[in-house]
Specification:
Elements lengths: L19 H9 L6 E4 L3 E7 L2 H6 L7 E3 L3 H13 L3 E6 L2 H13 L3 E4 L1 E3 L7 H7 L5 E2 L4 E3 L4 E7 L5 E6 L13 H5 L4 E4 L9 H15 L4 E4 L3 H6 L1 H11 L2 E5 H8 L4 H8 L5 E5 L5 E8 L35 E8 L15 H22 L16 H16 L17 H7 L1
Parallel strand pairs: 1-5, 1-11, 2-9, 3-10, 5-7, 6-8, 11-12, 12-13, 13-14
Antiparallel strand pairs: 2-4, 9-10, 14-15, 15-16
Helix pairs in contact: 4-12, 10-11, 12-13
């Protein structure tokens, strides 16, 4: 049972040296699978400054705020550069992080829509963005703009307090004309973030709607990550309408789940969101993560792991099942899986930013692997039902959990390489019988 697609290493999926997939995939040749996504392209900048710098640029200490204009952002950036105060400068953005990590994990192509400065100077934010993005992420569809992309400043004062200043730049100027319908229609998934839905007057909002319409028309799964609980609270009704119409998979943390559903219980929040979508990924920090969805009763597989109960009795009983779309189930059953943080979490957490994006990249990778395998071996027993992923709920949880751990243990939200290999699990032996 090999995890298919182009990869440099095995990750969590065992490879049998003499398996049918290896032989037949050579005969069928390489099948091109990829994912697409839209992002507000932004660079995250961390710098150590004195309190006087905050006063000079009109920033409230310890607060997160928008910079008043691009000129202020440019002056701040130039000041930090000239005085050698920048400690870290990484490409950011929820979808940018997810696509980059997907391409690192899969060693395969993803396509990103967004904006990029037309004239790029070495050492500037736009240059850093390109340098920190995997070469497997196709940036040829970016819209050129005259000016800066988004910049997020994290200014650390001597007392350790952090002050955040956000400069949107031109990151919201993506026009619908720069969304390639052909690329979206041919993708294995369209990955979106609720941030692009925040303001209906912005061009990127209409670009997002266009992409979602194309995905809907071509039966491409739409994956939506919720961004922040403040955003969800501000646009809850509009966001729920978008989810009801377009979205296949929702990714969120516990705060966003509560803002969307009004429920503090993790499992009940997932159950509520499943009324609108087919699969839910919920990351809950030190509690680990949950994956919830549907499976046809005829395709259910019982777990050999300890049974857990909370607000839903024995909620993980069928976690060895594989996710399906509710519409493809003749008798749909809700399935839940949960996993505690890998190895209890890193001994030292360098950065919490991007852990959820890493988990989502693992889920998207598993979905795309399933699409790849279905194209190459459509008669395989792996496709006797219309599954959403190649692996089971429990196995996808393991993969997502491990990627989150890797992101937490490093300073950047973007992986620089793939993951180490691991031994086969009990569940893999179960499936290979």
């Amino acid at each position: 049972m090999k995890f298919p697609g182009k990869r440099k290493i095995k990750h969590y999926f065992p490879v049998n040296a003499d398996n049918r997939f290896d032989r037949e995939s050579i005969a069928f040749g390489h099948v091109n699978t990829y994912v697409t996504g839209i992002d507000q392209n932004i660079v995250d900048i961390t710098a150590h400054v004195d309190d006087s710098v905050l006063a000079d640029f009109g920033l409230r200490k310890g607060a997160s705020q928008l910079l008043p204009d691009n000129e202020t952002a440019n002056r701040l950036y130039e000041f930090l550069l000239e005085n050698n105060l920048i400690e870290e400068e990484f490409a950011g953005g929820t979808i940018g992080n997810t696509l980059h990590n997907y391409s690192v994990l899969a060693d395969d192509r993803s396509v990103q829509f967004g904006v990029m400065s037309e004239n790029i100077v070495i050492g500037t934010s736009s240059y850093r963005y390109l340098c920190n993005t995997s070469s497997k992420v196709d940036l040829t569809y970016l819209q050129p703009v005259t000016g800066a992309i988004g910049r997020g400043f994290a200014l650390v004062t001597p007392d350790g307090d952090r002050t955040f200043g956000i400069s949107p730049g031109l990151m919201n100027e993506l026009k619908p004309d720069y969304i390639s319908e052909k690329m979206v229609a041919g993708s294995s998934a369209l990955v979106l973030c609720a941030y692009t839905l925040a303001d209906e007057s912005q061009p990127i909002y209409h670009a997002t709607i266009k992409a979602a319409e194309v995905a809907l028309e071509n039966n491409v799964p739409v994956v939506l990550t919720l961004g922040s609980y403040v955003l969800v609270e501000n646009i809850r009704e509009r966001l729920q309408a978008f989810i009801d119409r377009y979205v296949t998979i929702v990714a969120m943390n516990e705060d966003e789940a509560e803002a969307l559903t009004g429920m503090t219980d993790r499992v009940l929040a997932c159950e509520k969101v499943l009324d609108s979508v087919d699969l839910v990924l919920l990351t809950a920090g030190p509690e680990g993560l949950y994956l919830s969805g549907y499976c046809d009763r005829d395709a259910l597989r019982q777990t050999s792991n300890p049974i857990r109960s909370s607000s839903v009795t024995d909620f993980n009983r069928y976690e060895f099942s594989r996710p399906m779309s509710r519409r493809d189930c003749s008798d749909p059953v809700k399935v839940y899986a949960h996993i505690d943080p890998y190895m209890g979490g890193p001994e030292r957490i360098s950065n919490t930013n991007g852990a959820g994006d890493g988990a989502l990249a693992a889920v998207v990778h598993d979905m795309t692997a399933n699409a790849f395998h279905r194209l190459v071996l459509p008669t395989s027993g792996k496709h006797n039902h219309a599954y959403l992923t190649y692996s089971s709920f429990a196995q996808v949880c393991k993969y997502a959990n491990r990627v989150s751990y890797q992101v937490l243990a490093q300073s950047s939200p973007r992986l620089s390489r793939g993951l180490p290999e691991r031994e086969d699990s009990l569940e893999e032996a179960y499936w290979s019988r």
